[in-house]
Amino acid sequence: MIRFKTPHHADVVMHDAIAEKLIKQMGASGAIPSALDPDMIVEAMEKLNQVLSQPSAQSTPQEQAVSLSHRAAPLMALLKSALDTNETVMWQKTNSV
Residue 18's closest CA among 32, 8, 37? Predict the structure, then answer.
């Protein structure tokens, strides 16, 4: 599990595979632990939005799986909160939820 943190938002915890994919899609190195400085968040959100707007990130009514765009929603909210409050976003491995 990977925990994303910023001071003025609830932590977001995701399974490693999904979190690592989203971290790389934000343009980060993929290193864990790591962080985004406030000046990097806009670009990270733009990159993630671009990926999530692709049809492959959406689920169809016939699919049982949760789409990548739905899985990313809590992370996007955390990024927006960090952007609004000009704070760093950090992530690290965690053993608990």
Answer: 32
Task: Please report, in tens digits, the pLDDT of each residue of the chain (97 residues total).
Answer: 999 999 999 999 999 999 999 999 999 999 999 999 999 999 999 999 999 888 877 766 665 578 888 999 999 999 999 999 999 999 999 987 6
Entry pTM: 0.88
**87 falls within a domain:** yes
Is 41 a member of any domain?
yes
Phi/psi at 29 (nearest 5 deg)?
-70, -25
Report the domain count for the chain.
Answer: 1
